[in-house]
């Protein structure tokens, strides 16, 4: 005879829901007519991501320009695995490349942060400080530590310069 007990802490965490994971990936935007894209398609995608992240209790920091994406997402292990599957299967036009996955104790980000890189002097300064491959922003030429440092430099001023970072 088998005795069934209801231990909620174990039954609710059978998939690792209690374990926080951080995933960093890079991507190159090669959407339809990406050279002619006026930003509407990308804006729609980002808004959909924001809503999905909010529902799934995912926090995120995203850096984009006209061609490239760097994103770090944080959430429960099963949710992050689900997001990774979705990125690969449904957003293949971003050519996602995983840079780092690690378990974390505390989230680094608060909400869904976005920084759009422009040709401003401050953005060029961040890029030059973080890249050894020249002044052009191309995360495919960056090592993991460069990407991590770059993200931290971009978002470290998020509290003092809220106009630099968009909160969706």
UniProtKB/TrEMBL annotation:
Pfam families: BLUF. Gene3D superfamilies: 3.30.70.100. SMART domains: BLUF. GO terms for molecular function: blue light photoreceptor activity; FAD binding. Residues 20-115 form the BLUF domain. PROSITE patterns: BLUF (PS50925). This is BLUF domain-containing protein. It comes from Psychrobacter aquaticus CMS 56.
